[in-house]
Amino acid sequence: MQGGDRMEFFKKKDLIVIAVLLLSGAAGAAFYHLRPAGENLRAEISYNSDVIAVVPIDGDVRELPVPGHENVVLSVGGGEAAFIISDCPDKICVHTGRLKKSGQSAACLPNKIIVRIISDKGNELDDIAQ
Amino acid sequence: MKQNKKFNVKGLVLLALLFAMASVLNILEGMLPPLPVPGVHIGLSNIPVMYSLFFVSPAGAFVLAVLKGGLAFITRGAAAAFLSALGGILSVAVMTVIKLISKDKASAAILSVSGAVAHNIGQLLGSALMYKTLAVLGYAPVLLIAGVISGILTAALLKLLLPALKRINR
Questions:
Q1: Which of A8, A66, A111, B74 fits as disulfide partner to B107, beta carbons 3.0 to 4.6 Å?
Q2: CB hemisphere CA count around A67 (13 angstroms)
Q3: Nearest C-alpha of chain A: how many angstroms from B60?
Q4: Contact B110 A90 (CB under 8 A)
Q5: ipTM of the prediction
Q6: What DSSP string describes A17-82?
Q7: What confidence tens digit (pLDDT) does each residue in A58-106 have?
Q8: Size of interface A-B (CB pairs under 8 A)
């Protein structure tokens, strides 16, 4: 048996690494959340990576069953979009909550449905990647 | 009779026990109430993987990561298996590299934190690949912070469980 009991549980130096990780997480979150929401926001609904519908999210709040996949229902309107009903086991999509800004997305992996907010300026993160 | 030294029965049984433990912990974690942050797990089933990596062999830890992917395939389907295996293998790879370059001086906590963060990043990259969009990367900060917390937590639990784990590996 190698190593044995000699492995230390925690070192002071670890705090530096942990602080760096937490700070980069906080910086990333700040960068992501403090940017403007974008103009002319629309919810882009895709199934299996193919866009099946693009719906404006201004206007009155309404329930919208996903076309062709009525087991999943979105709430769209008032500048927001969200999954409200899904038959998937984990409900991660519903728990993701409301999407308000360009680039935000919620995914229902079991149903292969992704909702993403897009704006006239396009998706910033994907623009950076391209 | 000549004995085949490559066939290590003790190591095999230990690996099987660790995988059984990981499976039970995985199911147990599924029974806990979901955390308020979507997609974030405590990662209890990583405890046997870390035990294998720290005190037995990195090769065994890799085998466990792959087996955990197989378990995810049976219980949650192909997409979950792909993400589980990708996260698990990247996590073990990162922990192994850090353990090697620090010449076994890295603490359990820092290995666990790096492993948990790598696990989350692996899963995030996996879902970016699966859905051909980088929009999911907006979730990276949350998963980074969650990785640090779950890493510290699982390292503490490993420390707590170490006497019991040693008893099966005498």
A1: A8
A2: 9
A3: 13
A4: no
A5: 0.72
A6: HHHHHHHHHHHHHHHHHSS---SS-EEEEEETTEEEEEEE-SSS-EEEEETTEEEEEEEEETTEEE
A7: 888 999 999 888 899 999 998 899 999 999 888 888 988 889 888 788 8
A8: 108
